[in-house]
Model the fold of this input.
Amino acid sequence: MPELPEMENYRIQLSQHILDLPITEVVVGREKSVNLPAEAFARELLGRQVIFIERRGKHLLFHLDNGRRLLLHLMLGGLLYLGSKEDRPDRSTQVEITFGESHVLYFIGLRLGHLHLHTAKEAEELLSHLGPELLDRRMNAERFTTLLRKRRGSLKTTLVNQDVIAGIGNCYADEIAFAAELLPMAKLQNLSDEDFSRLYQAVRDVLIEATEAGGYMEMPLTKDDKLTGGSNETCRVYEREGETCPRCGDQIVKAEMNGRKVFYSPGCQHDR
Done:
């Protein structure tokens, strides 16, 4: 499932291509992916412009020029592709939106995900449960420590809880735990101030590095996109079962915790 770095990469790149262009065509291939009847959904969007794209956690918010919002959550298997009708991807699409004369934004894999049209107030209420953004300039080590010290339970379970902090999923929770030299199963109540300080730095380092590398998506956003998917090669432990740990040389282990797969290096990750 796309996480903060993947959605932030999409936000940055899409902002360079589709802002202020009129929506000239809307095709809904799967009505369950939108929250209005297909014809009504298209009618509401035609002629409108996206004036700003915001990311909130794992969501994208397309701000329209009439004050409304398109709320996108890709969920598991969701992808975006921006191209022309000539270089349409050979994939099943659920929604297609054309901006201007030739920029078609293809929404792919929205079997669990969705693209819904809301008022600004509705969108705000729907996302109000999300925890704070960890890369927000208002976030710092002290606030981060205070936030997590209120919690009990395992490190990974807390990191992926969108009500506590927004944007982290399975992949980056494991990468953050590795960078902080903590086991994903470590109990928050057992961590020291030094552990929390190291954890906060790990959060920033991992998320910034992954975003700058383009996240781990399986296909580029455009035919000329050389960035998206670049962090596939930068993961140290996630999906690296049986490989050698780049830090201590031990073998990376795959386990299961609360129904989630978890990857870690037992040689250099500890419970505190």
User: Anything to note?
Assistant: The beta strands are 23-28, 50-56, 59-64, 69-73, 79-83, 93-99, 103-108, 114-118, 253-257, 260-264. The two ends are 29 Å apart (CA to CA).
